[in-house]
Amino acid sequence: MPDKPPPARVVFLGGLGRSGTTLLERLLGEVPGVAPLGEVVHLWARGVLADEPCGCRRPFSACPFWREVGERAFGGWPDDLAHRMLRLRRRVDRTRCVPELARRLAGSPARAGSTGPATSAVSAGSSGRAERPGLARPVTPSEAVRSAEFAESPELAEYAAAHRRLYDAAAEVSGRPVVVDSSKHASTAFCLAAAGLDVRVVHVVRDPRAVAHSWRRRVPRPEDGRPMTRWSPARTSLHWLAQNLSLELLARGGARVTRVRYEDLLDAPAAVLGRLAVEAGLAPRLDFLSVGRADLSPAHTVSGNPVRFTVGPIGLDPDDGWRTAAPARHRRLVATLTWPLMIKYGYDRRPA
After folding, report:
1. Does the first or last residue of the chain, that is N or C, have fewer Cβ atoms within 10 Å of its Cβ?
2. Is 0.85 surpassed by the pTM of this model?
């Protein structure tokens, strides 16, 4: 009987949308041994139910990779499983759940002995068929929760166990030991960590003024042409603070968190990607990089910005158009609302 493959090594990209997580995922996906999965948190609604295209441009239901992952992890992708996962998400994976998840994480035996924040920063200068969760059999302790403390939250256990099965199946099907989930949401990272999953979190930050400008732009969804959500600068500032403060709290709870600035990724991609590859236990083979560009191959990613469909050369030039395109009053407002974290992350709050 063949040995069971080792569990996937999971890299979770966290941060507010429009901060560069999709680009970082695509670049990491070119490192040998890495399988980029896209925003797994949206797989159930946008992939299973809406049948939106995979990054390979096939409909989700027609993508050979995801069909095989579904068979191995859950015996397929039935709608009732997708609806169950969406209900679980509404129950346990929301920003308002972060305080309770942080309490659970702090009390987890897996974090016992942690002496403080586990945050590091990557800068330009540093360098058979399985049963369905909740449908065919109960979640086993080895798949999710290993502490009686979490027995009070079977929904969290079930939610995390489904992610574990999906990650392991994706690693097995791709033949790559490391999977990247760019779901972004701090609450999702908290769910995985609080339920005992071994996950490395990459906290992606970007100048909030650039993020606010991006959220104001009219951008069509590549899947159907409908406009993507737009936010005001004030609303973006509040979301930027909420997500980044939550990820800071995650690190203080003992989770392994590495911070990456989007600007540093563009300035010195080899240094940033090399460090992340080593942290994931991989050799930093970066021959897909050249001066100011990267060459991308097709990827099986679900959900994310249009970059997930890009194949071939992509520019890695500094993205500073917001400095002149964003109205000065908007830049001032965002800096006023976010300045404490701006300074912490090395951004100059003076007028851009």
Report:
1. N
2. yes
